[in-house]
Design goal:
By secondary structure, the chain is mainly β. It is about 5% helix and about 50% strand.
Length: about 400
C-alpha cells in the first residue's frame, strides 16, 4: 500500500518576511532567493504556501476587550525574562503509530524588532523522546525543533497577525507564530513566519489560549489520508492526452451534474460506442458561482486509461484559474467510462460543489449515463494527529 504520509502533517499558514512586516500586514515582493545571511527577508518561494485562504479581520471575531485583556495580563507579569514549554506530536495511520515526538523548549527575550508583539523569545529546543516509525515526517518549524537546519528561531504572540496581500491576505487574532531561517544546501533561506495557532482556531490551526503566565494550544484531528488510486489505472505508458487548444463542434448529447471542489470525489459516466468512429468529449461549466477547473479521464472496458483532457478549451463560465477539458479521438466499439473531477481547491471561496455539463459528440448519438455519483477515487485510510504545547512565561 502506498500512502501519502505527508498529508498527516498539519497544514500551517506561512509567509516570508520579518516580524514587523508580518504584524503590520506587509509582505516583501522580492523574488525568492538565498539570503545573504544578514537577516534579510529574501527567501525560497517554494517553501511558502501559495494560498492563505482565511481572509478578513481575525481580531474582530474576538469578544469585546479580548485583545486588551491579553496585553494587560502579560504586562501585569512584570519584566519577561524567559519561557519554558513542552511540546508533543503524535500521529497514526490506519491505527499504526507514525510519529511520536516530545520536545522541551526554552527561550530568552527576543531583542530584535517586534514592536507590536505581546511577547517574543529566541528559542532553543531539545528532543526528549522520539518513538516514531520510519517514514515519519513533520516540519521542524511546527515542532519548534532547533536541532537541525533551522536557526534564528523566534516564538512569539501577536494580538493580530496579518499575512499575505491582495487575494491571499489573511488575518489571525491572538496568533502564536514562529519565525525562522533555514540553513540549506546552497545557502541560507528566510526568514519565514508561520502561524502555529490562533485565538479563533481557524481551519487546521489549533486554538491559542493565554491565561496569566500560562499558555497552551493544541489540535486533536481525525481525518483520512489518500491511499492507492482505486479507480484509475494507467496500464500502458502510451495514451491520448489532450492539452492543445480544442473545441467540440457541437454535441449530440449532454448531461449535467456536480462534483466536489476538493478533488476527493469523482463522477463516473458510461458511454457505449457501437461502431468504430470519431468521438468528442467535453466538460463545461454552467454558472459563474459554481465554476471550477475540471479534468476528464476516459477509460476502457478493462478500466485502463485511454485518454485524458485538461485545460484546453475556454469554459462558458471561466473559473478563477485554468480552462475546461475537451478531446476528440478514434474509438473502437465497446463500453467506456468517463471520469469527471475537479482539480484540488479551485472553486470559488465558500463553494463546495462545481456544476458541469458533459457533452458527447459522435456521428450517431451516444448518450452518457451516470453510473457512480461523488465516489472517492483513492483508498481512504483513517489518520489522526494529536499536537499539543503547554508553557509558561517567566518574569521578575
Amino acid at each position: 500500500m502506498t500512502a501519502k504520509l505527508g498529508l498527516l502533517a498539519m497544514v500551517m499558514v506561512g509567509c516570508e518576511g520579518d516580524i514587523d512586516a508580518m504584524i503590520a500586514g506587509e509582505q516583501s515582493s522580492d523574488e525568492a532567493r538565498p539570503s545573504s545571511g544578514d537577516g534579510s527577508s529574501d527567501s525560497d518561494s517554494t517553501d511558502t504556501p501559495d494560498d492563505d485562504s482565511n481572509s478578513g479581520d481575525g481580531a474582530s471575531d474576538q469578544p469585546d476587550g479580548a485583545v486588551d485583556d491579553t496585553e494587560s495580563s502579560v504586562d501585569e507579569l512584570g519584566t519577561l525574562t524567559g519561557l519554558e514549554m513542552e511540546l508533543t506530536y503524535e500521529s497514526t495511520l490506519d491505527g499504526d503509530l507514525v510519529c511520536s515526538k516530545a520536545l522541551s523548549i526554552t527561550g530568552t527575550p527576543f531583542t530584535g524588532a517586534c514592536d507590536d508583539c505581546t511577547f517574543a523569545f529566541a528559542i532553543e529546543s531539545t528532543v526528549t523522546a522520539d518513538e516514531s516509525a520510519p517514514g515519519c515526517s513533520v516540519p521542524a518549524y511546527q515542532l519548534l525543533d532547533t536541532s537541525g537546519t533551522l536557526f534564528d528561531v523566534v516564538f512569539g504572540h501577536s494580538t493580530r497577525l496579518d499575512i499575505g496581500s491582495g487575494g491571499t491576505a489573511a488575518s489571525y487574532a491572538d496568533a502564536a507564530f514562529v519565525r525562522y531561517s533555514v540553513d540549506g544546501s546552497f545557502g541560507t533561506y528566510g526568514p519565514y513566519t508561520r502561524v502555529l495557532a490562533s485565538g479563533d482556531g481557524f481551519e487546521d490551526l489549533g486554538e491559542f489560549l493565554l491565561d496569566g503566565d500560562a499558555f497552551e494550544w493544541g489540535l486533536d484531528q481525525d481525518s483520512f489520508t489518500d491511499g492507492d488510486d482505486v479507480l484509475v489505472d494507467f496500464c500502458e505508458p502510451s495514451y491520448t492526452s489532450s492539452w492543445t487548444d480544442f473545441a467540440l463542434s457541437g454535441g449530440y448529447t449532454s448531461a449535467s451534474d456536480s462534483v466536489s471542489c476538493d478533488g476527493s470525489q469523482v463522477d463516473l459516466w458510461s458511454i457505449e460506442v457501437e461502431t468504430a468512429s470519431t468521438v468528442g468529449l467535453g466538460v463545461d461549466t454552467v454558472a459563474a458561482d459554481t465554476a471550477f477547473d475540471a479534468k476528464l479521464t476516459l477509460m476502457g472496458s478493462d478500466d485502463c486509461v485511454v485518454a485524458t483532457a485538461d485545460d484546453n478549451t475556454p469554459c462558458t463560465f471561466a473559473p478563477d484559474r485554468y480552462e475546461c477539458p475537451a478531446i476528440e479521438l478514434e474509438l473502437e466499439p465497446g463500453m467506456y467510462t468517463v471520469m469527471v473531477h475537479s482539480m484540488i481547491d479551485v472553486c470559488r471561496p465558500g463553494v463546495e460543489m462545481g456544476e458541469y455539463t458533459l457533452t458527447v459528440d459522435g456521428s450517431t448519438p451516444i448518450r452518457p449515463s451516470l453510473e457512480d455519483d461523488d465516489i472517492f477515487r483513492y483508498e481512504r485510510i483513517p489518520s489522526t494527529v494529536d499536537y499539543r504545547a503547554e508553557g509558561r512565561l517567566l518574569a521578575e
